[in-house]
Design a protein that fits this description.
Order of helices and strands: EHHEHHHHEH
CATH architecture: 3-Layer(aba) Sandwich
CATH topology: Rossmann fold
CATH superfamily: 5'-nuclease
Radius of gyration: 15 Å
Helix content: 40-55%
Number of domains: 1
CATH class: Alpha Beta
Number of helices: 7
Strand order of the largest sheet: 2-1-3
Distance between the termini: 21 Å
C-alpha cells in the first residue's frame, strides 16, 4: 500500500539535522527511508511547495529540490479537490477546523486508498470524522 507523506515527516528527514532529532523523530525518519526504499512513499505538489518554501539560501533550496525530484507528485484531479472540500465541510460541521492542504492530503489518500504518514496531531482529529488511515512507524529489529 502506498503512503502519502505529510510535510511534517519530510521536514524531519530533509530540513532538520540528524543530531537534533529526538528518538521518536529518528523513528519517523527511519520509517520514511524504509517507505522510500520500498517505493511506497508518495507526495503531492502542495507538500513539495511547503517543503521548499522558506529554505535558507539557494544552495539549500537546490539540494532539497534535487532530493525531492526522486519522488513524482501524485497527480491531482478535479475529484480530489471536490473531495477535499467535502472533507472540509464534514470536519467543520463537527467543529474541527482544517487547513486546505491537510484536507487535500486526506482526499487524495481516501480516493486512492493510501495511508497518511504524519506527525501532525490535527490528523488524529480528522480521523474521527473522515475515512482516513494513519501510518505509524513499524518496529525495527
Amino acid at each position: 500500500m502506498r503512503v502519502l507523506v505529510d510535510t511534517t515527516i519530510w521536514s524531519l528527514a530533509l530540513r532538520r539535522r540528524a543530531q537534533d532529532l529526538s528518538p521518536r523523530e529518528r523513528k519517523h525518519v527511519a520509517e520514511l527511508a524504509a517507505l522510500a526504499h520500498e517505493g511506497r512513499a508518495a507526495i503531492i505538489g502542495a507538500v513539495r511547495q511547503e517543503l521548499l518554501s522558506g529554505v535558507a539560501g539557494p544552495p539549500r533550496f537546490e539540494r532539497l529540490r534535487s532530493i525531492l525530484r526522486d519522488f513524482d507528485d501524485e497527480p491531482l484531479t478535479v475529484d480530489d479537490c471536490e473531495e477535499a472540500a467535502r472533507h472540509s465541510n464534514t470536519c467543520r460541521r463537527a467543529g474541527v477546523t482544517c487547513s486546505p492542504i491537510d484536507v487535500l492530503i486526506c482526499a487524495v489518500a481516501t480516493r486512492r486508498d493510501f495511508e497518511i504518514y504524519t506527525d501532525d496531531p490535527d490528523f488524529d482529529r480528522y480521523a474521527k470524522h473522515l475515512p482516513i488511515r494513519l501510518h505509524h512507524p513499524r518496529p525495527r529489529g
